[in-house]
Specification:
This protein is of the alpha+beta class. The protein has a single domain, classed as Alpha-Beta Plaits. 18% of the residues lie in helices and 32% in strands. It has two helices and six strands; from the N terminus they run βαβαββββ. It has a four-stranded antiparallel sheet with strand order 1-2-6-3. Strand 4 and strand 5 form a beta hairpin. The model has no long low-confidence stretch (mean pLDDT 89).
């Protein structure tokens, strides 16, 4: 594992992604997270297992291209994101929406 995340694995995971596609994947026990673009699969797996106390079976990552956006005459680029789709073992789950 790289030295940059060994002490602080919580910095690897930024937030869960709640989209229509990600919600459909919850039925197949797959959870989608936005992660640090420098994070590798072993670091993501260790962070998920440590933070949520679950067992990860597989991870798929994707680095979509950055999009260009215009505001009036000013052009800029959106922040770079890296997505990770995490598949958990049978019977394991992550509580994304805590009950009140």
């Amino acid at each position: 594992m790289a030295k940059r995340f060994t002490d602080r694995l919580a910095d690897v995971i930024r937030r869960p992604l709640i989209t229509e596609k990600a919600t459909r994947a919850l039925e197949a026990n797959q959870f989608t997270f936005e992660v640090d673009p420098r994070a590798a699969k072993p670091e993501i797996k260790a962070a998920i297992e440590q933070l949520f106390d679950v067992r990860v079976v597989g991870i798929s990552t994707m680095n979509p291209p950055r999009r260009t956006r215009r505001i009036g005459r000013f052009a800029g680029r959106r922040a770079q994101v890296k997505k990770a789709v995490v598949r958990l073992a049978e019977g394991q789950t992550i509580q994304l929406f805590p009950e009140s």
